[in-house]
From TrEMBL:
This is ATP-binding cassette domain-containing protein. Keywords: ATP-binding, Nucleotide-binding, Transport. InterPro entries: AAA+_ATPase, ABC_transporter-like_ATP-bd, ABC_transporter-like_CS, ABC_transporter_ATP-bind, P-loop_NTPase. GO terms for molecular function: ATP binding; ATP hydrolysis activity.
């Protein structure tokens, strides 16, 4: 579905250039859940920016279903690290934004989004403002807005980074359920090796900057996975190996 070949990115700064990515090769098949892990500053967000089209690579090729997509915005839906709900809009008015922008009449957009609120754990909060919701609910609303773009490829940049451990666990399981039910293809950035192994079909580990792929590992465990998976030999071996790469 998505292929990155020899991707590099150099930022020409005022003082000195920064080589963010070097010779990154990666492939994503339809329906795969892939995590990208790597030390802080190794170029993970840059990679998602390049796939989403908001940054151009300085070298290499990038294709989606065989078509060159370098610099092309709108192929994938991108959920950034920060909470990007507009504080002055109610939850329903926040989540319908991609529908409104694509020209769908507001009434129809409201109906379509309204039907999904329960599935996204937001029933009863349609007319609330973002500050009235918990962190986990705000992330679900951010995710619903991303989902309503209708894109089948989702780029998620540390979606659980700011949540407490319990909410994080709940959202991981919830997200896996939605992604498999809706047959979504996901590229997830995370700092958390446990999270990457628990959620993914495959994991790319990047080296410290300039980011290069140092591991591409399949997670063989069946789905749905439960938390007992954390106690298995396979999980512990993979975790040890990935942590070694990150060091
Ligand atoms: N617009 C920019 N101009 C210049 N340098 C940049 C720009 N964006 C990112 N960088 C640099 O590129 C490198 C990679 O940044 P990036 O944000 O992609 O890393 P990251 O792995 O996502 O980091 P983190 O895990 O801390 O979020 C960093 O050294 C960063 O300072």
């Amino acid at each position: 579905m998505l292929r990155l070949q020899n991707i590099s990115k150099v930022y020409e700064g005022a003082a000195e250039e920064v080589i963010a990515l070097e010779s990154v090769d990666a492939e994503v098949a339809q329906g795969e859940f892939i995590s990208i892990i790597g030390p802080s500053g190794c170029g993970k967000s840059t990679l998602l920016d390049i796939i989403s089209g908001v940054q151009l690579p300085t070298g290499g090729t990038l294709s989606y279903q065989g078509e060159d997509i370098a610099g092309k915005v709108g192929v994938a839906a991108y959920m950034p690290q920060s909470d990007v709900l507009f504080p002055w809009r109610t939850i329903i008015n926040n989540v319908i934004l991609p529908l409104e922008l694509s020209g769908i009449p507001k009434k129809e957009a409201m109906e379509r989004a309204g039907e999904l609120l329960e599935k996204f754990g937001l029933a009863g909060f349609k007319d609330s403002y973002p500050f009235m919701l918990s962190g986990g609910m705000r992330q679900r609303a951010n995710f619903l807005r991303t989902y309503l773009t209708g894109k089948k490829l989702l780029l998620l940049d540390e979606p659980f980074g700011r949540l407490d451990a319990i909410t994080r666990m709940e959202l991981q399981e919830w997200l896996l359920h939605i992604c498999s039910a809706e047959k979504l293809t996901v590229l997830l950035i995370t700092h958390d090796v446990d999270e990457a192994i628990f959620m993914s079909d495959r994991i790319y580990a990047l080296s410290k900057r300039p980011g290069k792929v140092v591991a591409n590992r399949q997670v063989m465990a069946d789905r749905p996975r439960d938390r007992q998976f954390f106690l298995t030999r396979e999980f512990l071996h993979l975790k040890e190996e990935l942590l070694m790469h990150l060091k």
